[in-house]
UniProtKB/TrEMBL annotation:
It comes from the Bacteria. This is ABC-type transport auxiliary lipoprotein family protein. Keywords: Lipoprotein, Membrane, Transmembrane, Transmembrane helix. Residues 40-116 form the Mce/MlaD domain.
Length: 367
């Protein structure tokens, strides 16, 4: 007997411990856990699919208790009565909204409580009435909505058939008169100036090749930044003086804005004069010994009197310290045989060739 006694005591102790753990878990899940609790009666005006005793109770999304009892209302079998046990500190009011929410992929239902301002009288039993349809799942709501849509379609089947028949008649009429409709639309397009935009024609400024015999060359590095100009000259359009729309130039475009075009062709001209010592743009060269600063004053067609292409530049040579060592105004014009794009470009080519020759000769002498 003495040998068996310890085994009996150990078995009894283990069994008691197991029962104590199960009892604690049962009490924690069904009696509300630690702290004072308050019970409230809840009535659902419809089915509560999946709701079980022990289901959670959420107040504003925070778990505050659980369902402790479920049953059918004896006076109305369509209603469901439930008892919930929540933490006594939960601010449940007589106008607190009650609902049923299905959580997660499995759709586990929980009782939800929201808001409320009216405090119940002391000692008065509090019954919370859930909103109608609170227990309706998303699936059931979709079925009800489809059922209502089906009912509306059934009630209006006659007018719907008439409407569809009218659409068919209208579409048949359009098909029979497609040619006429295309003609009407084409007329409207012409009247409103619509349609595909006219193709722009791009013209370039030609770089002069005959710049004279190479005499003195550039003995220092030279950079030509993009010329400055007033806003009116920052364009690819042909400019006129006096300003106006000249017939034949609506689709005219220079290959680039006038300052960038003049910069590119001046650099090309220096290269044609002496490729070994040609200047570069300021973005292509670090700190150059000199900069040739160009300000474009005129680059236009003058139509008063004899038509002519006019180019006017102001040039300054600046050293590394920003000191102006030389400056010059270069102006020229070329007669136009005819005020049209091709003749205008030919005149600008001739005028620019004179400007480039004069500017190169002056620059190589001044540097």
């Amino acid at each position: 007997m003495e040998t068996r006694a310890p085994y009996v005591l150990i078995g009894a102790f283990v069994l008691a411990a197991i029962l104590a753990v199960f009892g604690f878990v049962y009490w924690l899940n069904n009696s509300g856990g630690i702290g004072p609790r308050a019970n409230y009666h809840v009535q659902f005006q419809g089915p509560v699919p999946g709701l079980l005793v022990g289901a959670g109770v959420l107040f504003n999304g925070i778990r505050v208790g659980e369902v402790t009892q479920l049953g059918l209302a004896p006076d109305n079998p369509r209603f469901v009565n439930a008892t919930i046990s929540v933490a006594s500190a939960t601010p449940v009011r007589t106008d607190t909204k009650v609902g049923l929410e299905f959580q997660g992929l499995t759709g586990v239902p929980v009782v939800t409580l929201e808001g409320g301002m009216i405090v119940a009288k002391s000692g008065e039993p509090l019954t919370l009435i859930a909103e109608a349809g609170a227990g309706q799942s998303m699936t059931q709501a979709a079925r009800d909505a489809l059922r209502r849509v089906d009912s509306v379609l059934e009630d209006n089947s006659g007018p719907l058939k008439d409407t569809i028949a009218n659409f068919k008649t209208f579409s048949d009429g359009l098909a029979r008169n497609t040619g006429k409709i295309d003609g009407i639309l084409a007329g409207l397009e012409k009247m409103t100036g619509g349609g595909a935009p006219a193709q722009k024609i791009t013209y370039d400024l030609r770089t002069p090749l005959e710049l004279g015999q190479v005499g003195k060359t550039l003995s220092a590095s030279l950079a030509i930044p993009e010329p400055t100009a007033v806003a009116m000259l920052q364009t690819q359009r042909m400019l006129f003086s006096p300003v106006g729309d000249i017939k034949g130039f609506a689709d005219f475009l220079w290959a680039d804005s006038i300052p960038k075009l003049v910069q590119a062709r001046l650099i090309d001209s220096f290269e044609n004069y002496d490729i070994a010592h040609a200047p570069l743009r300021t973005t292509d060269l670090g700190q150059a010994d000199y900069q040739l600063l160009i300000d474009i004053r005129r680059f236009r067609i003058a139509t008063e009197g004899e038509p002519r292409a006019e180019i006017g530049l102001s040039a300054r040579l600046v050293d590394k310290n920003g000191k102006v060592i030389a400056s010059r105004l270069i102006e020229t014009s070329e007669k136009l045989d005819k005020v049209e794009p091709a003749a205008a470009v030919t005149a600008f080519d001739a005028a620019f060739a004179r400007v480039a020759r004069e500017l190169i000769g002056w620059t190589v002498q001044a540097v």
